[in-house]
C-alpha cells in the first residue's frame, strides 16, 4: 500500500470524531480523578493567561492544522509524517492523517479537512498550506473560513497584500489592534493592521492583514522584529483586527499543546517502535490521551497522567 494514498482506519476516525463531539457538546466530557491537594500550577497559570488575553466578542470556533515528523520512524516510502487538526479552545485533536513526506502535507491536510464535519469553523494554517486549492476547499466545499499566512510560495498574493497595507502607523490607527505579552523571559508586542480584499487577491479572500511582532528582554528593550502578511475569508463584520490577532495567536496551540506534549511528556521521538503502522497507531493513542485530559479540564498532562495509575480509573475516563 502506498502511504501517499493511505486511508485512515475507522478507529483513527473514531478518535477524532469522539473528541470533536465532546468539544461541540454532543457527548459528555470525560472525567478524571484528582489527587487531593492544591490546584495544579499550570491551571493557575492558564487562568492568569486567560485574564491577560481576553477572547474578543464574536470569536468563531477555530482549529489549527499543522504537521509533525516522527523522528526515527520509517516505512518503505520514507519518514513517517503526520498532519493533525487541533481545536483552538479545548486543545483536543479533531483528526490526523499520515503523509509520506513534507511535500505531501498539503494534500493530506485537505483530506483531513474533508473528513471533518465542521461547517462554520475557522481554520488557521501556516504558509505551506496557502494554496488556491485549499482556500477553495474551505470556503466552497466545507462552508468554513480560513486564516492563511502568505510567504514566498505565493509571491503575487504577498506583493498585493503588501501594497494594500503599506503606510505609516498613524494612517491605520482605526484598523489596527495591538496586544502585549510578557513571559518566558521575554516581552512581545503583536500589532496587526487590516485592509479589505477580494477574490482578485486569493479565492474567497475578504481581508488582508499585516502582523508585526516585536520581541525583546524583560528590561523593555526590543531586539527583534518580524513582519508577516496574511489573508482571510472572514469579512470585517465577522472579524476585526483584534479577532484576527486572536486567531493567529491561537494557531500556535498545535505546537505548544500537541507536538511539544507528545515529544516531551510522551517521549514520542524516543519510541523504539519505528516501522510499519505502529508509529501512526501510537501517535493516535497519544492524541486520544491528550484530548481526553484536555476535555476533562486539566491543564497539566503529566500531572493528570499521575492520577490515572489505576486501570479502572483510565477506563472510567471513557465510560468503559
**C-alpha-based Rg, rounded:** 20 Å
Mean pLDDT: 85
Shape: globular
SSE-based structural type = alpha+beta
Approximately how much helix is present in the residues? 25-40%
Based on the model shown, name its key terms:
320 residues, alpha+beta, 10 helices, 35% helix, globular
Write the layout of secondary structure elements.
Blueprint: H1 10-24, H2 41-52, E1 62-75, E2 78-87, E3 93-99, H3 105-114, E4 122-125, H4 132-141, E5 145-150, H5 155-164, E6 176-183, E7 186-196, E8 207-216, E9 222-232, H6 241-251, H7 253-264, H8 278-295, H9 301-306, H10 311-317
Parallel strand pairs: 1-4, 4-5
Antiparallel strand pairs: 1-2, 2-3, 5-9, 6-7, 7-8, 8-9
Helix pairs in contact: 1-8, 3-4
Structure, explained:
Helix 1 (10-24) runs parallel beside helix 8 (278-295) and helix 3 packs parallel to helix 4. The protein has helices spanning 10-24, 41-52, 105-114, 132-141, 155-164, 241-251, 253-264, 278-295, 301-306, 311-317; strands spanning 62-75, 78-87, 93-99, 122-125, 145-150, 176-183, 186-196, 207-216, 222-232. With 320 residues, it is of the alpha+beta class. Strands 3-2-1-4-5-9-8-7-6 form a nine-stranded mixed sheet, with helices on both faces.
Amino acid at each position: 500500500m502506498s502511504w501517499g494514498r493511505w486511508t485512515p482506519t475507522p478507529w483513527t476516525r473514531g478518535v477524532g470524531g469522539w473528541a470533536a463531539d465532546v468539544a461541540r457538546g454532543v457527548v459528555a466530557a470525560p472525567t478524571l480523578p484528582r489527587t487531593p491537594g492544591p490546584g495544579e500550577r499550570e491551571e493557575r497559570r492558564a487562568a492568569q493567561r486567560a485574564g491577560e488575553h481576553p477572547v474578543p466578542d464574536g470569536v468563531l470556533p477555530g482549529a489549527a492544522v499543522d504537521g509533525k515528523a516522527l523522528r526515527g520512524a520509517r516505512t518503505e516510502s520514507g519518514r513517517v509524517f503526520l498532519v493533525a487538526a487541533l481545536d483552538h479552545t479545548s486543545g483536543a485533536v479533531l483528526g490526523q492523517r499520515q503523509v509520506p513526506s513534507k511535500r505531501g502535507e498539503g494534500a493530506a491536510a485537505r483530506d483531513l479537512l474533508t473528513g471533518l464535519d465542521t461547517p462554520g469553523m475557522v481554520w488557521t494554517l501556516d504558509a505551506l498550506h496557502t494554496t488556491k486549492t485549499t482556500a477553495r476547499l474551505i470556503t466552497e466545499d466545507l462552508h468554513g473560513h480560513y486564516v492563511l499566512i502568505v510567504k514566498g510560495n505565493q509571491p503575487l498574493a504577498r506583493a498585493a497584500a503588501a501594497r494594500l497595507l503599506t503606510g505609516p502607523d498613524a494612517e491605520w490607527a482605526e484598523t489596527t489592534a495591538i496586544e502585549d505579552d510578557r513571559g518566558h523571559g521575554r516581552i512581545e508586542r503583536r500589532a496587526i493592521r487590516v485592509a479589505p480584499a477580494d477574490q482578485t487577491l486569493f479565492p474567497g479572500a475578504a481581508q488582508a492583514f499585516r502582523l508585526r511582532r516585536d520581541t525583546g528582554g524583560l528590561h523593555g528593550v526590543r531586539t527583534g522584529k518580524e513582519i508577516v502578511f496574511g489573508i482571510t475569508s472572514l469579512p470585517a463584520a465577522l472579524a476585526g483586527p483584534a479577532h484576527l490577532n486572536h486567531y493567529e495567536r491561537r494557531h500556535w496551540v498545535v505546537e505548544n499543546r500537541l507536538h511539544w506534549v507528545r515529544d516531551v511528556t510522551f517521549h514520542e521521538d524516543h519510541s523504539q517502535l519505528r516501522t510499519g503502522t505502529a508509529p501512526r497507531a501510537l501517535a493516535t493513542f497519544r492524541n486520544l490521551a491528550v484530548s481526553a485530559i484536555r476535555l476533562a479540564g486539566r491543564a497539566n498532562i503529566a500531572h493528570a497522567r499521575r492520577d490515572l495509575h489505576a486501570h479502572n480509573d483510565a477506563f472510567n475516563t471513557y465510560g468503559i
